[in-house]
Amino acid sequence: MDVDGKTVLITGSTDGLGRAVAWRLANMGAHVLLHGRSRERGEALRDEIRAAGKGKADYYHADLASLAEVRNLAKAVLQDNGHIHVLVNNAGLGSGPDVNRRATSADGHELRFAVNYLSGFLLTYLLLPTILKSAPARIINVSSLGQQAIEFDDVMLERAYDGGRAYRQSKLAQIMFTFDLAEELKGKDVTVNCLHPSTFMDTTMVRLNNVPPMSTVDQGADAVMNLIVADEFGRRSGLYFNVMDEARANEQAYDAAARARLRELSKRLTGLA
């Protein structure tokens, strides 16, 4: 995909991986729609990109821990933009120093499941008519190598909370959504792929975990950009990548019944049912 003049929305793009991808796209002439929870960082990045004189940039403020704010984000983006050629669902919460303290979203859902998965699920469907109108288009979900099967009898981990498990099942949910949506959009010139961008990149999230970085943000940005611009991913869809290599996800991702169960649950929780 030649992104010059194309409109690209990247959630979680005021820091780390999302910020790096935003800069690369802007330098290639894209109209980058930035998103984040920090208005100060978001507006500063918008102004920096505009001052660089290459691509365009706009900033949208939203806390993805609230489904109402996800809806407001979609509404604002659609009011301002007639096309969305690429959507990168990148925003997310890691394990963090409070990993084993259960927290909930504004809607009462387990926080990591809400932010890492439900917000992207809802945002994607709210934007989907415009993405389809903008075809050829691409949707990229930034997931993780850390995955764990979803326990459907306790999705919100109310019985025995473990923050690592909460993170891993939210990331597997993203992959299951990717596979499902790719099948739904088959033949519509919109591809949907997901990836583990790199392990322990030098990001704020990793530093908060007191983990020594094992890779760089630039390596992760290389992997995301590959799915955005490489010709083959205008044709190939429903794939999971470990950085640049096509890989196999947790086995539950290939269970059609489990994906259908997750889809039904997700639509009900987000009000799309």
Protein model, in words:
This protein is of the alpha/beta class. The protein has one domain (7-270): NAD(P)-binding Rossmann-like Domain (Rossmann fold), CATH 3.40.50. Helix content is 43%, strand content 14%. It contains eight helices and eight strands; from the N terminus they run E-H-E-H-E-H-E-H-E-H-E-H-H-E-E-H. The chain has helices spanning 16-27, 39-52, 67-80, 111-133, 163-184, 204-208, 217-229, 256-270, and strands at 7-10, 31-36, 56-61, 86-89, 137-142, 190-196, 239-242, 245-246. It has an eight-stranded mixed β-sheet, sandwiched between helices. Helix 1 links the parallel strand 1 and strand 2. Helix 1 crosses helix 7, helix 4 (111-133) crosses helix 8 and helix 5 packs across helix 8. It is globular.
Topology:
Layout: E1 7-10, H1 16-27, E2 31-36, H2 39-52, E3 56-61, H3 67-80, E4 86-89, H4 111-133, E5 137-142, H5 163-184, E6 190-196, H6 204-208, H7 217-229, E7 239-242, E8 245-246, H8 256-270
Parallel strand pairs: 1-2, 1-4, 2-3, 4-5, 5-6, 6-7
Antiparallel strand pairs: 7-8
